[in-house]
Amino acid sequence: MKKLVAIGKTVEAAVRSGLSQLGVEENRVQVTILEHPSRGLFGLIGSKDAKVELSVKPDGVEEAILFLREVTGAMELAVTVERSEEADHTTINLAGEELGILIGRRGQTLDSLQYLTNIVANRHSDKHLRIVLDAENFRERRKQTLEALSERMASRVIRSKREVVLEPMSSQERKIIHSRLQSNPHVKTYSQGDEPNRSIVIAPK
């Protein structure tokens, strides 16, 4: 935990000075008052400034980003990191060249790295964090692919009146297909099997 001792004429002034030096907001620090200010004899002799210690609280998402920089650096990949806050999660998008190695086959490597990133983030946070890791907007492109696949397979099920079992997918990808077909009046979807080989079944209603 990063710490800094700051002084000022008042406790408030000392805190402001410390925040300015650290470059953080007040809600990111824990303040310990080391010395209260005193006016001294006649308000002149022996007067003391206030002294405070500011301890920066760890930020889980920032720690996760540092972890990702270390991983990509070790792989000698030049990436830029973009962070965006959503209603129920934080998205971290990695941009750069030759990121296919980070994505892997159908995003499997990216999913594994996302799992590790969430572990790091929550280790440094006092509240539960959910991080979605993306690379070159792969998640959106994969979502579009899965939605198109679900429509094609639903049409096949309707024509043949026989169920179709899709390849094993992550829970995140299965959710995309369930959501896409939930309003289709002719088919239903459910999952079968055990992780990590759990698959979606599209069946006629």
TrEMBL record:
Keyword Phosphoprotein in annotation: no
Cellular localization per UniProt: Cytoplasm
Organism name: Cohnella thailandensis
Tree of life domain: Bacteria
Alphabetized Pfam families for the sequence: Jag_N, KH_KhpA-B, R3H
GO molecular function: RNA binding
Region (Jag_N domain): 5-55
Gene expressing this chain: khpB
GO cellular component: cytoplasm
Domain remark in the UniProt entry: Has an N-terminal Jag-N domain and 2 RNA-binding domains (KH and R3H).
Every R3H domain range: 140-205
Keywords: Cell shape, Cell wall biogenesis/degradation, Chaperone, Cytoplasm, RNA-binding
Entry's Gene Ontology BP terms: cell wall organization; peptidoglycan biosynthetic process; regulation of cell shape
Entry-linked InterPro entries: Jag_KH, Jag_N_dom_sf, KH_dom-like_a/b, KhpB, KhpB_N, R3H_dom, R3H_dom_sf, R3H_KhpB
Subunit structure: Forms a complex with KhpA.
Annotated family: Belongs to the KhpB RNA-binding protein family.
The UniProt record lists the keyword RNA-binding: yes
Name of this protein: RNA-binding protein KhpB
